[in-house]
């Protein structure tokens, strides 16, 4: 009986160890938030439901970033139930200024906002519009890139052009790996962290 009890404890211990390992694997590498794996279908379904909010966000970004000489990239992340600004990057005539988890009260952040003609309220508006669109990031320019959700180290996004794509652009933005032409002025995009050697590099099914 003692031998059976001993082996039962060993087996239960192994199951517990496997559970703990799987739980740790499901935690993201930096902020402790669980890794949620999305699919191309989720990207499409979200656009079908949130198209109005996505276009509204694109129009707002065009209004506050009127020139392609200055590209602004903003991303918000959920950490411990709070949505915070996780990146605020500005590229001005090819010169990049990257800021990770910026302090909104810091002088550098204030200078960036002033140079863009923005206020803290501008960031709050972007945050609210991204939440409404069920998205996490936006990068200005033509096309405007709106990040839907991360899946591991990959990112599913929408590229929203000002006009319906020409035939040549349709060919360029429809390789099946990074880009899938969706319709009119919308292209679906999947990008992976180049530093993650084990990450999927293309849309699933490619």
Describe, in short, the structure shown.
The chain is an alpha+beta fold and 206 residues long. It is built from five helices and eight strands.
Structure, explained:
The chain has helices at 2-25, 40-64, 107-116, 120-132, 167-172, and strands at residues 70-79, 82-92, 95-97, 137-139, 144-151, 154-160, 179-183, 186-192. α2 (40-64) packs antiparallel against α4. Strands 3-2-1-4-5-6-8-7 form an 8-stranded antiparallel β-sheet. By secondary structure, it is an alpha+beta fold. A hairpin with a 2-residue loop joins β1 and β2 (82-92). The chain has one domain. Mean pLDDT is 87; it is low at 20-33.
Q: Which structural category do the helix and sheet elements fall into?
A: alpha+beta
Give the C-alpha Rg. Answer: 21 Å
Q: In what range is the share of β-strand residues? A: 25-35%
Question: Total number of β-strand segments?
Answer: 8
Furnish the topology, listing elements before pairings.
Blueprint: H1 2-25, H2 40-64, E1 70-79, E2 82-92, E3 95-97, H3 107-116, H4 120-132, E4 137-139, E5 144-151, E6 154-160, H5 167-172, E7 179-183, E8 186-192
Antiparallel strand pairs: 1-2, 1-4, 2-3, 4-5, 5-6, 6-8, 7-8
Helix pairs in contact: 2-4
Task: Using brief descriptors, characterize the structure shown.
globular, eight-stranded antiparallel beta sheet, 38% helix, alpha+beta, single chain, 206 residues
């Amino acid at each position: 009986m003692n031998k059976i009890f001993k082996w039962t404890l060993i087996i239960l211990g192994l199951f517990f160890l496997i559970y703990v390992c799987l739980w740790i694997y499901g935690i993201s590498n930096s902020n402790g938030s669980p890794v949620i794996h999305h699919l191309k279908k989720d990207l499409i379904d979200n656009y079908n439901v949130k198209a109005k909010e996505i276009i509204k966000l694109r129009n707002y970004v065009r209004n506050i970033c009127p020139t392609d000489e200055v590209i602004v990239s903003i991303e918000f992340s959920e950490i411990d139930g709070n949505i915070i600004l996780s990146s605020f990057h500005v590229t001005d005539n090819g010169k990049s200024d990257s800021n990770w988890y910026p302090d909104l009260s810091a002088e550098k952040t204030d200078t960036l906002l002033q140079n863009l003609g923005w206020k803290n309220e501008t960031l709050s508006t972007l945050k609210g519009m991204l939440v409404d669109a069920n998205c996490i990031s936006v990068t200005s320019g033509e096309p405007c890139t709106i990040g839907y959700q991360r899946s591991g180290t990959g990112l599913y996004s929408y590229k929203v052009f000002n006009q319906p794509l020409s035939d040549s652009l349709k060919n360029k933005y429809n390789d099946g790996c990074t880009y899938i032409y969706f319709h009119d002025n919308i292209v679906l995009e999947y990008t992976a962290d180049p530093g993650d050697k084990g990450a999927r590099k293309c849309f699933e099914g490619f």
